[in-house]
Fold this sequence. Notes:
The chain is mainly α. It has one domain (32-168): lithium bound rotor ring of v- atpase (Four Helix Bundle (Hemerythrin (Met), subunit A)), CATH 1.20.120. It has five helices and no strands. The protein has helices at residues 2-11, 20-56, 66-88, 96-133, 138-170. It is elongated. The model has no long low-confidence stretch (mean pLDDT 90).
Amino acid sequence: MASALYSAATMLSTTCQPSSAFFGMLGVSSAIVFANLGAAYGTAKSGVGISSMGVMRPDMVMRSIIPVVMAGVLGIYGLITAVIINGKIQAASYSAFQGYAHLSAGLTVGLSSLAAGMAIGIVGDAGVRANAQQPRLFVGMILILIFAEALGLYGLIVGLVVASSADGKGRDLCKSWAA
Length: 179
């Protein structure tokens, strides 16, 4: 009977698990890695279209650089999120709730930016090539690129809300293991 009570007390222990910080750090790395993958793909795919278009219309190269800039912003989304999450990780008093919330925030930002980068790359490639043949398509291309970029921005907003709310909701769920 005594061992059964000891086991139950051990299982209900409110000491923070050191492994919880692993999930928070996984959120940090997910945000930056996936966002940079999206930025790299968008830059590369758009860059191929700009290079191809530049052979026909070299005067339009600088005007066609917009998709590359928009893809680069996605990497900044991941960087911002990774820095914010990393600043909130206090390993000794970090609860599992906070770790999972920060993992989900990092994945939200990273994967949203990856999807946005893929969309920007495809639209940027086709858009700058089409714009070289018909300059009136420029405004339409920019609008499509804005909507593609918005996907990454939505992920950033949700990720930041989740990361910031984890601090209040996950605080005091466990005692510091260092104490």
